[in-house]
Amino acid sequence: MSWLRSITKPGVFTRSKKDVKANVWVKCPSCGDMLYRKDLAANLNICTNCGHHHRISVQARLAYLCDEGTTQEVSVPAPKVDPLKFKDRKSYADRLKDAKKASDGEDAFKVVIGDVDGVTTVLCLLDFAFMAGSMGTYVGEAIVKAAQTAKEKNLPLVLVPASGGARMQEGILSLMQMARTTAAILDLKDAGLPYLVLLTDPTTGGVTASFAMQGDVLMAEPGALIGFAGPRVIQQTIGETLPEGFQTAEYLKDHGMVDMVTGRHQQKAEIAKIFKILTKA
Amino acid sequence: MAAEHFLDFEAPLQDLKTRMTEMRKLEGSKEGELPIKDLEEELNRLHIKEKSVMRRLYRNLTPWQKVQVSRHPNRPHAKDYIRHLITDFVPLAGDRLYAEDEAMQSGIGKFLGKSVVVLGIEKGKNTADRVKHNFGMPKPEGYRKAQRLMDMAEKFGLPVVTFVDTPGAFPGVEAEERGQSEAIASCIEKLLTLNVPVVSVVTGEGGSGGALAVAVADKVLMLEHSIYSVISPEGCASILWRDARSASTAAQALKLTSTDLKKLGIIDGIIKEPVGGAQRDYTLTMKRVSAEIAKCLNEIEKAGASKQSRRAKFIALTRLNDN
Ligand SMILES: [Zn+2]
User: Fold this and answer.
1) Were B250 and a residue from A135, B54, B152, B233 both cysteine, which residue would form a disulfide, CB within 3.0 to 4.6 Å?
2) Residue B74's Cα: distance from chain center in Å?
């Protein structure tokens, strides 16, 4: 089918331009250990010393979530670029150009069809490396497309948000993505197809307050920051001191807001198991 | 109505008002230099001038000035709209899960003789009132109460009318603990599952997700000088310009006025405000808002409201032509 094309050959996922340039050593922000980048990558970017989940590229995440060689990219129709002709200290058009150069995506998302432990699934991942994974019209379109593709093909949907929230440079249009994505996901839910959200670091703002909290199952990655208002906003506007571990995945689980906190090595098998149970497969 | 409050750009109006007040005092004391007849003529002249200055100021409001007008303390708030437009109003309290949220006014009543469910975000009028309504920032319980009332609307086949005026959902520790994002997400979801008509009116400040949560409607209207934005201009300025003083520049860039939103196809109609803003003439404002809501409800009923049509409307939003 024309809208399907192979993403890339298996095995080259972890070697993006950025990885090559960066230092061979990484300091773990959690335990302070110096980690050899290759070891870190081999362990799915989880600290070999303390288990801290470092951020991971979209490509590397797809590589561990999907069975090798099964992913096919779903293309997303491009919306109007820079609809507001937005300019702050720098123009949005230039910011987009820079972001595209720094990543290999058209915007802050990747939509694929792939097998998760043998279960064919539509996956939509947000790319934090692209303008902090912020949700504008293109990202909204990607989520709509992912939900509609899952519905058409009778497949479950996994969404992996990693986003600072709405993309301010698209103003009110970015806010509307909260309603658009919700509408598309409701159509999928009405069709009786399972929808799982894998919440990763960070997931905040309008993304959290829409599709990211609507999963039949909410799985969160250990230590991930998940919330509506950012911790700085809360501190500034309210002057409250924040409790220990505030807005972490574990904190959300304790408060009944997510179903489970699942490490990277277990996610794939868990997702497949959940989908098999829900679809009585 | 409270004492007249002037915004900074209304300085010429305030000057005129001060002069008029002083002249009236003179008139009362009979000690003025001018004969009473001349005083009255001068007062008349100033009164006419006031009207024309007001007309001129309000015809060309900048986005930042509109932000100020939308937040004007004397502007009609949710409770005013409910009091003027809804008869037999029965307030309904509580989310049945945790608490009552006074920021989210809610209840049932009659609009032009027809039964409706009403939701309105209320900012409050004076300091004590503002604290009581949490400055119009609902907490999760507010959004959960809203969902409870939406369910009621669906069960009894009643249209939902919402009045939107909020700086945003409450950003606090307890709101996060109780799932502010889930509450907003579920509110949006609920509005997209109703099969009854939904009309929303942004009356003042449409602040981000906290506003959208009760504005996913078949018809979304904005008062002429209200605003609707993904982030406050101050918030946007401090992030993108790294300077909150650039708020007026941010207000311009964000395209948050009613005319901008209409052009972008995000809203369905603009309700014209009286000269000098809704805060200067409640009666005329209410009359116009009432007429527009009635018109919208009629149109929706004719076209038939359904979750499918509402979902289709929102999925089609922001798909701008060319390119
Ligand atoms: Zn570590």
Assistant:
1) B233
2) 12
A50 Cα–ligand 1 center, Å: 4
Residues in chain A within 8 Å Cβ distance of B228: 172
Q: Are B205 and B71 in contact (CB under 8 A)?
A: yes
Which residues of chain A from 20 to 79 reach within 8 Å of chain B, CB to CB? Answer: 78-79
| Rounded Cα gap, residues A109 and A75, in angstroms | 11
| DSSP labels, A168-220 | GGGHHHHHHHHHHHHHHHHHHHHTT--EEEEE-S-EETTTTTTGGG--SEEEE
Rounded to whole angstroms, how far apart are CA atoms A180 and A174?
Answer: 10
Secondary-structure class of domain B68-317 per CATH: alpha beta
- Please, are residues B210 and B169 in contact by the beta-carbon 8 Å criterion? yes
Helix (H, G, I), strand (E, B) or coil at A70: coil
In this structure, chain A runs to a length of 281
DSSP summary character for residue B135: G
The radius of gyration of chain B from alpha carbons, rounded to an integer in Å, stands at 21
- Each residue of B22-54: pLDDT tens digit? 888 877 666 656 677 788 888 899 999 999 999
Task: Tell me how far apart the alpha carbons of residues B314 and B323 are, in angstroms, rounded to a whole number.
Answer: 20
Structurally, at CATH architecture level, domain A56-279 sits in Alpha-Beta Complex (3.90)
Restricting to A residues 126-145, those with a Cβ less than 8 Å away from any Cβ of B are 137, 140-141, 144
State the ipTM, two decimals. Answer: 0.95
Band (A34; pLDDT cuts 50, 70, 90): very high
d(CA B48, CA A215): 61
- B111: which 2 tokens? 């609009």
Domain with CATH 3.90.226.10 in chain A: 56-279
Name the residue in chain B with its Cα closest to that of A235: B172
Residue of A18, A85, A210 whose CA lies nearest to B169: A210
Name chain B contacts of A86, Cβ cutoff 8 Å: 253
Per-residue model confidence (pLDDT) at position B26: 77
DSSP letter at B203 equals E
Residues in B touching A83 (Cβ below 8 Å): 264, 318, 320
Q: Find the length of chain B.
A: 323
The bridge status of strand A72-74 relative to strand A34-36 is unpaired
pLDDT (tens digit per residue) in B12-22: 999 999 999 88
- Residue found under tokens 């029965």: B90
- How confident is the model at residue B23, as a pLDDT? 85
